[in-house]
Amino acid sequence: MKSIVLGYPRIGEKRELKKATENYWNKSISEDDLSSVTKVLREKIWKTQDDQGIDLISSNDFSLYDQVLDMCITLGCIPERFKDLNGLEQYFAMARGLQKEGVDVRAMEMTKWFDTNYHYIVPEFIKNQNFSLNTEKIANELKEAAELGFKAKPVIIGPITFLLLGKEKQKGFNRLELLDKLLPVYEALIKEIDAIGVEYLQIDEPILATDLSSIEQLAITKSYECFSNIKSGVKLILANYFDCYGENLELALKLPVDVLHLDLVRCASQLDDILCHKSFNTKKTLSLGLVDGRNVWKNDFEKSIAFIQKAKQKLKESNIWIGSSCSLLHSPLDLDLEENNKEIHSEIKQWLAFAKQKLEEIAILKKIALGQSNDFVDQIFEENKIANKNRRESKLIHNQFVKQRIEALTDKDGKRNSPFLTRQLLQKATLSLPVFPTTTIGSFPQTKEVRQNRAKFKKGKLSQEAYDSFIEKETEATIRFQEEVGLDVLVHGEFERNDMVEYFGEQLDGFVFTQFGWVQSYGTRCVKPPIIFGDVCRPTPMTVKWSSFAQSLTKKPVKGMLTGPVTILQWSFVRNDQSRSTTCNQIALAIRDEVCDLEKAGLKVIQIDEPAIREGLPLRKNEWKMYLDWAVGAFRISASGVKDSTQIHTHMCYSEFNDIIESIADMDADVITIETSRSEMELLNAFVDFKYPNEIGPGVYDIHSPRVPTQVEIENLLDKAARLLPYENIWVNPDCGLKTRDWPETKSALENLVQSADKMRNKLSQLV
Ligand code: GLN
Ligand code: ZN
Q: 652-663, pLDDT tens digit by residue?
């Protein structure tokens, strides 16, 4: 029996990697300085795992930016435009682009790693491209580990996951056609690793957790058969995670690998499926992913032991490994760092385990499974039982009032009083907006001053009164600005908000916040997701004060601004003792109460942002419907408590609607604002083909760049939109919030936006 961890967070306790890398980028430290920081980090990572009793610790899971980008370098999969660069300059140019004298290269694309919030660099492929092996990183890390006395297991991304996660950059070929050129490079890699004397190699193929075509399945079989023909002493661990093998199980069981890793957190039933499967060879080792790599909760040892017992009925002890469900990259680093965090109740603290604590869990589980108990093991086991029992029964979690409300929910709670067309008439009468009404998505520039004042207030260096009057001043100036520019539906500007989830989480019961619970999101960017530990409820209104203050300043309608239940859920660590849909409905009820209070306070337009609805989609298509049903249902609960004449907006900022457009329509928001400017309105096709029934604001300029769109550009986009959609349903707005922009460009851009809308109205009046 072995204990195994699939990978470990690399950012460091104090985000040392982030700081060093950013310092390197702005040239305040040298490449040598950067590499000494990373060397120390790796040593600490290995030592921690070893100290905690992990048998198989990883190497090559460390990365300066991203492990898929590292794999591109290892396999020589480097797009032509970077070929003149080398070393770190090339590496970071691939990640972030490079602009300097005579060089102007665009970065590679970045996208979400499966259903996590981690973003990887998307490999680029062209027809007949060549690959070439570069083992510098892998070999160096192995050498470094060996010098410290650690026998590390390198981790690489498997050929099919690598190919399928990438993109063809030329038409007329399929990237799987490159497999024949890619496999020899992998073979050479395995041989080199063998020569170094490595015993185990972990090959990650999480693509096995998705739907694969028969050609893709064949490509998997072909690859691993090819690896098994190599004369080498390296034993292969095939790691799948984030879901079960599903339809790919039969094939996975037949692959000539030594160890098969299963994520039993995401899919508990697969252990039975495997043990009973006719193609399962009991000589194979199963690595049981029992400790959740993607959440913050303490493992339930009794449940885990039950899994191990089950495996023991069919397998020799030596063929059972105990591990993390996936890489621990997705969990915060160390709960001990929260020692002085008074906001997390000590009772709640005992329910938590971050990456470092998860190592101990894995090691202890192995000892229990082997019957190697001693006082220490017994004590930890006992503590684990008590903590889990306490968590089930704790008063902190359970709120009968919330549970009763959830029980009492009926279809009616997710339905507006009247259908859209009736509401539309009433809203037109109440709001008296012109055609092509103009609005923004919510936030206005978060200047240095705004951020500094908030930080000072948080640290207690600025009084509540002083802070409030600062926010008042900013809000008022923003209202005046919007009036002057001539926008139709105004916003308050969100100056009081740090982050669109944190702001709400901080005011809701059932949430706690860590001080150091950072998780890598992409490159040096880290996020600190809130933890939803208990029933969610809203003790007092959260946004009414600032929204109604803004409304009191103007005769024009101000749009209340809320984050939707699915987005709050999606960007938090969620409790695992009830279904996600139940937790989501609890959040939905809290938002619903807020929506109703905003209405009572006189706001006639309320926006509920749901930028994360798409990223919650399960990895396998047959599970989509179930998710979309509850996610859309939760949004509807949050939006349906108001009068017909109150206008509900929603906002989403991503680019793929085609496959979920029906569900988007099912949300039944009166107005949806979406990103479209970067694709020149192409995205609208989904809405047009589907005949999207409600009002829609296709973003007419890209807020991700400081570039000010000209009036003509915006008008052209609006012309396009008006040819595709009924003009009376069209809104005019930027494609996302303006918080990352500066005032001067925001002013010019919005002036142009308002003038373009005017032009459109003129054109229309000449027509009728
Ligand atoms: N209302 C938010 C803002 O304007 C929306 C942010 C988002 O879509 N991610 O900042
Ligand atoms: Zn957005």
A: 987 688 889 999
